[in-house]
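haha ok so turns out i had the wrong file open the whole time. this is the CORRECT one, sorry everyone. sequence first:
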Amino acid sequence: MILANDELKRLISEGRLSVKPYLPEVVRENGLDLRIGGEYAIYAYEGVVVKPCELEDAKPYFRVVKSEEVVIPPRNFVLLTTEEYVKFPRDVMGFANLRSTLARYGLVIPPTIVDAGFEGNITIEVVNQSPNTIVLKRGMRFLHLVLAKTAGVAEYRGVYQGQRGVTPPKGLRGEC
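then structure:
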C-alpha cells in the first residue's frame, strides 16, 4: 500500500518516520521530495579497470566534491547525497525516483529501493544520458521517494546504515 501525504504527515508527527531537516514541502501527494546535499562523488579516474569482486572498498576510485553546484558531464554519472537524514520505520520502505522535470533534461537514476528500517543520508546514482554537461544546485528537490507499507516488519542489515554524506560503493569481496 502506497502512503499518501496525510499518512506520511501522521508518521512524521508521531516520530515513526524522521526527515531532518524537515520542511513541510518535503511531503508531497504520495511521497517525499528530498534535496541535493552539499557534496557529490564522481569517478576519480578514467580508463581504469574496476573489479568490484576484488575490492573491499571502492572509495579510492571516487573523488568527493564539496560544492554548491553538482557538475554532471555528458554520458557520465555522479553519486548524489540527500540534504535530509531520514529514518524509516521497520514497516515502511521507499521506491526512489528522479523528479520528472530533471528526467526531461536527460538525467536518470537506476531502480533503487530504500529498505524498511534504513537510517541515514541517501546516496543515489544520477546518470546524465544527454550530450550536454548538466549543472544542479545544492538544495534543489531531485529525489522523489514513494513510500509503501510492508506486509511485515523488516530487520535492516545493510552496510550503509547510518551513512552521512555521499557514500561511494563498498567492495564486493567475499560476495562474488
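Residues 4 and 150 are 15 Å apart (CA to CA).
again sry for the mixup
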